[in-house]
Amino acid sequence: MKWADFSKLIKLRLTFLVTFSASISFIIAVKANGGDTWGSLYSSTMWLNWVKLVVGGFLVTSAANSFNEVIEVETDKLMKRTMDRPMPAGRMTTGQGLVLGLGMGMLGTYLLGSLNILTGLLSVFSILLYAFVYTPLKRRSGVTAVVVGAIPGALPALIGYVAGQPHGRIDEIALILFSIQFIWQFVHFWAIAWVLDDDYKLAGFRLLPTGKRDKASAVITFIFAIIMVPVSLLPTIYGYGGYYVGGVSLAMSLLFLYQAFNLLRTLEVTAARKLMFGSFYYLPVVQLMFLFDFIGKVK
Q1: Which of 138, 139, 271, 294 maximizes the CB count within 10 A of its CB?
Q2: CATH of the domain at 43
Q3: By three-state DSSP, how is residue 37 classified?
Q4: How far is residue 293 CA from its own chain's centroid?
C-alpha cells in the first residue's frame, strides 16, 4: 500500500492535529500535578510515556478515521473531496480497511491503557462514539451529529491530560481543556460545512444548523463564536493563568468572533473559508499559551 493511500485512509492532517492536542495536554498535566505524575519535565520516564501517548493517540485516531471511511465508502464515492480515497477509488477493499483499523485500534488502546486504565477506556469510548455513533448520524440529523461528534473531537485534550498522571483522574483543569476544545468544534465544523456544503449535498449530508447556507445557520455559528470568548478565559477566571495567557486567548477569540461576524454579514463561502482557516490556527495557539503560561501559575 502506498503512503499516499495510507495517509488518506487515516486522514493524516486531522490525526496530527488530534495527537498534538493530546500531547500538549499531557505535558500540562505533568506541570500541573507536580510529584503526582510520571516525573518532572526532565525525567526520562515522563518522556517515554509521552511517546507512548503520541504513538497510541496517533494509532487510535487513525483507527477511528479508518472505521469512518469503511462505513462511508459509498457516500465517499459521491463527493469530489473524498472520491479519491483508497476505498471508494478501488485501491483498497473495505476488508483491508477494517483489518488495518482493528490493528491500529488494538495497538493504540494497549499503549494508552498501559499509562492508566482511564486513558485506555476513554480512547475506546472515543473510537466507538466517532465511528459508530457520529458517522451514521451524519445522514440523519446534521445538528445532532455535530453535537455528538464534538465529544470525541474534544476528548483528545482530556485523554492527554488523564494520561499525564499514573493514577489518571479528571480535575478542574482537565474539564477546562475539554470545554475549550468542545465549544471550538462547533464553529470549526460549521465553517467547514459551509465551505463544502455543495459537495456534502451530493452525498445527502446536510451538516449546517439549518441544512443550508442561510442567515440562520450563520447566526448559530456566530453565537457559538460568542460563547467561545468567555470559555477561552476560563483558565484565567479560575486562577490557572495570568494576564498574558488571558490576553492571547481573548485576542484569538475576538479574531475568531470577527471572522464569524463576517460570515454572518456576507453569507459568502470566502468568509466561511477564512473562518475555517482561523479555526485551524486558534486551537494550537491557545493550547500552547496554556502550556507556556497558565499551568506555571498553579500553586
Answers
A1: 294
A2: 1.10.357.140
A3: coil
A4: 22
